[in-house]
Amino acid sequence: MATQQAPARTAERQAFYDTIAPYNLAPLWEKLHHLVTPEPVTQCRPHLWHYDEDVRPHLMRAGGLISAMEATRRVLILENPGYAGEATVTGSLFAGLQLILPGEVAPAHRHTQSALRFIIEGHGAYTAVDGERTTMQPGDFVITPSWTWHDHGNESAEPMVWLDGLDIQIVKLLGASFAEPGAADVQAVTRPEGDSFARFGHNLLPIDWKPEVKTSPVFNYPYEMSRAALAALAKNGPPDPYHGHKMRYVNPATGEWAMPTIGTAIQLLPQGFASLSYRATDATVYVCVEGGGETRVGDAVLNWRPRDIFVVPGWAAHTHHAGAESVLFSFSDRPVQEKLGLWRESRGNE
Ligand code: GTQ
Ligand code: FE2
User: Fold this and answer.
1) Rounded to an integer, what distance in angstroms lies between the CA atom of residue 119 and that of residue 91?
2) pLDDT tens track for 273-312
């Protein structure tokens, strides 16, 4: 049986540690139990942000303080209380809420971090990815793949807010961050709106096309379509006892997750549904799209209503309880863990 505690730190041993420190050497036996733990140990805490009361007023205030242009991206970071000052929502992923006011532009740039947008409120702002714009509606899941040029603009009459999810900590860990500003604030439109969706979004692919990147060629998964699929599933059969009716967003060219570093899913929980206890190693960020209910994680009870955002730490057993019929969008680093052979799940008392 491996030791779970550090051996005693005698005066003689401490003197030795002090002697070797200047040589950039340290004793593993003092650290081993922290480094190689029998089960996941995380700073990530369960947490929920109530959008309407606790976020929206502050976000609108930010709108009066700084323009999207000056800020480059006017985003309020959703910082996990377990990672104070670290600008992260889980150990691996960033989340923030981005505001674009009518008439504003968030200037073009590109970076190796991949981003997802999940639209929270507003209609008619666009994001452009490598020359194609897509108009965003609440509940749409939009992708900005790694190293693609992107700018956002709001030509509608209302504020537009979406949740950003980025693989910032993953890219940082791997030392692979590159970024550059665009030559112009607004990139040239080179393809008509809907072009990607026509080519890749209808269970068809251009006959000789082969994927060159790992991200889905579909960059807007409209809520209307996801919702219709969930409605049919709910009508046609019973929910999974752990997940309700849960679907993952896929890259139609490969069957893989839509993004290589961030797994995204959408699930419907029937009215009155209570899930059985479940945990997995991927800490997960959820958005309530419709309905209302609560998620219990250990002693924490996260009460969600539409537009609320919450986080469930990895390997934390949890249950979902829906009052009204509810829809939850979620994202995590599951694709990364799966590719590395690390992802685990456990149902009930397993
Ligand atoms: O919209 O391009 O929340 O580059 C963080 C970094 C949003 C964006 C964020 C970004 C963006
Ligand atoms: Fe960006």
Assistant:
1) 23
2) 999 999 999 999 999 999 999 999 999 999 999 999 999 9
The CATH number covering residue 228 comes to 2.60.120.10
* Distance from chain centroid for Cα 89: 9
Q: Is the pTM of this model over 0.85?
A: yes
Which of 162, 155, 119 lies closest to 138, judged by CA? 119
- Please write down the HEC assignment for all residues of 234-281: HHHCCCECCCEEEEECECCCCCCECCCCCEEEEEEECCCCECCCEEEC
Whether the Cβ atoms of residue 105 and residue 153 lie closer than 8 Å to each other? yes
Q: Evaluate whether residue 209 is within a structural domain.
A: yes
Structure tokens belonging to residue 211: 């994927």
| pLDDT tens-place string over residues 16-25 | 999 999 999 9
Closest residue CA from atom 11 of ligand 1? 73
Amino acid at 167: D
Structure tokens at 89: 């929502």
**Long-range contacts formed by 177-180: CB under 8 A, 24+ apart:** 177/111, 177/112, 177/113, 178/111, 178/112, 178/147, 179/109, 179/110, 179/111, 179/112, 179/113, 180/109, 180/110, 180/111
Q: Is the CB of 258 under 6 A from ligand 1?
A: no
How many independent structural domains does the chain possess? 1
Could you tell me the residue range of the domain that residue 126 belongs to? 47-347
Establish if 4 belongs to a structural domain.
no
Distance from the alpha carbon of residue 83 to the mean position of ligand 2, in angstroms: 22
Which DSSP string do the residues of 154-183 spell out, in sequence order? E-SSS-EEEEEEE-HHHHHHHT---EEE-S
CA 346 / ligand 1 centre spacing (Å): 33
What the block records as the tokens of 46 is 């369960």
- What does each C-alpha distance from 229 to 119, 196, 236 come to in angstroms? 19, 21, 11
